[in-house]
Specification:
By secondary structure, the protein is α+β, with helices and mostly antiparallel strands. The protein contains 15 helices and twelve strands. The strands form two sheets. A ten-stranded antiparallel sheet has the order 2-3-4-5-1-6-11-10-9-8, sandwiched between helices. It has a two-stranded antiparallel sheet with strand order 7-12. Helix 1 packs antiparallel against helix 3. The longest helix is centred in the C-terminal third of the chain and has 16 residues. The radius of gyration is 26 Å and the shape is globular.
Length: 369
């Protein structure tokens, strides 16, 4: 959470990147500092106490690069203050957040968390109004639940700030909307009137959702459009129509419409897992063939004979669904054009023992039937 100066002049609606966590594999700390952050390594302090399971880290202000001597992955983490810090350097470098996300993707970075936020200094509506709309059944959303936290003064019951959560905080995507002015007043020990109107609307995304969002942010400069477009796809406050039982057809609430106008509808599409062996091959060809080729070339140059590939495969966690793919494909191959195959394995009427033996080499100990 970042602070501001009291009565500072700010825009009515400002979009910000509020958290970024991204993991890189088979790259050096120096490359992340040079290629992604474009900073000088001398700015960073090396610490022998890491976070998130990493033994060590390089720290510059609120920017942390976490790593370990026995690990092949490196984790870059920017909290809210770290994002504001990088904001400053991006402007100095004449770059945008769009460039930062593209540099991360160019190094095959995998995003574990991305938070986007809109600071509303107008305000378009109150958090209490939104909470009442939900109580009245006037929220149409992909999310199934909401929760409200309301802080009050014990002495007189006066408001000390309200927070509305839409979606589960345990899920990979949820919305948090709260009265930022009360938070800042409490932090700065001043009256809330000195801060003025200020709501914040945040979207927290993890894993697949974070990666999809990062890909959009690597192509779109207008962060406000991205945030509001995600809202359009996931949240819609409406006006109840007693004559129509189909809530999806209810008219959008005028205050919400004013807030999200000019936004598109940005769906964070998460590709479902491949259903067949052929689907898996197609996915690998489209998504990771270049990365695998890079690893293979290094192995051949250094005569490592599959060392890196084997290390990657050792991390696999096969489940029953994966075994079913293997069985279906092998059985299909054996049945196709009988008599054509020369492979002894496919000619066998029962291949159970051989398949189970191979699966054990990849950590699967269950029965294939």
């Amino acid at each position: 959470m970042d602070d501001i100066q009291i009565n500072e002049k700010v825009s009515v609606l400002e979009a910000i990147i509020d958290w970024v966590s991204v993991t890189f594999k088979y790259v050096t700390v120096e490359k992340i500092i040079k290629n992604v952050l474009k900073l000088d390594k001398s700015l960073f302090i090396k610490l022998n106490n890491g976070k998130n399971g990493y033994g060590k880290q390089y720290v510059f202000g609120n920017i942390s690069i976490q790593y370990g001597d026995e690990r092949y992955d490196i984790h870059l983490m920017l909290n809210g203050a770290g994002c504001r810090q990088l904001d400053f350097y991006l402007k100095f470098q004449e770059r945008e957040w769009k460039d930062f996300f593209q540099e991360c993707l160019d190094l095959a970075g995998s995003f574990t968390r991305v938070d986007l936020a809109l600071d509303d200094r107008k305000t378009y509506f109150t958090i209490k109004e939104l909470d009442k709309k939900i109580d009245n059944g006037e929220l149409v959303s992909r999310f199934r639940k909401s929760n409200t936290e309301h802080s009050k003064n014990v002495s007189d019951g006066s408001n000390r700030g309200m927070t509305l959560y839409i979606g589960s905080k345990k899920s990979d995507i949820f919305v948090r909307m709260y009265e930022k002015n009360y938070e800042q007043a409490d932090k700065l020990k001043v009256f809330v009137e000195e801060i003025g109107p200020w709501n914040r609307y945040e979207i927290e995304m993890r894993d697949d959702y974070a990666n999809e969002c990062a890909m959009n942010l690597s192509e779109i400069s207008d962060i406000s459009w991205v945030v509001k477009s995600i809202f359009v796809n996931y949240v819609r406050f409406v006006v109840k129509d007693e004559k129509n039982s189909n809530r999806s057809r209810w008219k959008i609430w005028s205050k919400w419409h004013e807030f999200i106008k000019d936004a598109g509808k940005l769906k964070l599409y998460v590709k479902p897992e491949a259903k067949t062996f052929e689907d898996t091959i197609n996915w690998l060809e489209k998504q990771v063939s270049t990365s695998l080729s890079t690893i293979k070339i290094v192995e051949e140059c250094l005569n490592l004979d599959g060392l890196f590939i084997e290390k990657i495969l050792s991390k696999a966690k096969l489940k029953k669904v994966h075994v079913e793919k293997i069985k279906t494909y092998l059985n299909g191959m054996a049945e196709m054009e009988k008599g054509v195959f020369t492979d002894d394995f496919l000619k066998k009427p029962d291949r159970t023992e051989e398949i189970e033996a191979i699966l054990k080499n990849y950590g699967y100990s269950g029965n294939i039937y």
